[in-house]
Amino acid sequence: MIRPYLTVLLMISMALMLAACGHSSMDELQGELTAIKLKPRGKIDPVPEPVIMPTFTYAAHQLRSPFTPYTNAQNLQPLAGKKVEPDLNRPKEALEQFPLEALHMRGTLDWAKSGKIEQAIVQDPLGQEHFVKVGNYLGKNQGKVSAITSTRISIVEIVPDGKDGWVERPRSLGLNE
Predict the structure, then answer these.
(1) For 107-125, what is the mean pLDDT?
(2) What is the number of helices (H) and of strands (E) in the chain?
(3) pTM for the full predicted model
(4) Fewer beta carbons within 10 Å, N or C terminal of the chain?
């Protein structure tokens, strides 16, 4: 019984609120629009002429990538007349799929508590950590771990000498790199 009266009262109050808001704000809006229309119009600068750049043909795709470190093949000499050749039939290890520059040394381990560092922890670009010991391979150039210290992993890579042969190149992976 009270519900119909309440609904009618609510509708009347909503109509009064809408009627009260309508007239004064519309007059203000019309005044603002008139003021804007009376202001002088601005001038828009013309679009600048485009500068025609000369075309460039990239012809250095046969050269060394600028993102790999420079290696002077003439400075790499075979060590003590030893013939060096990579073992292409050897099964690849997990860290050989990444370039050496993408790997990071994260620490070392001494399992036997002998004071001699036996393993190092290396993180790959995917964020996974691997245990590395002397004799393991890492990097894309047949890099074999030759020594591990508390701050550095010494690696010997086998790289082309530029004369259809191979030479060993010492590299290292540091803890702070």
Answers:
(1) 81
(2) 1, 7
(3) 0.52
(4) N
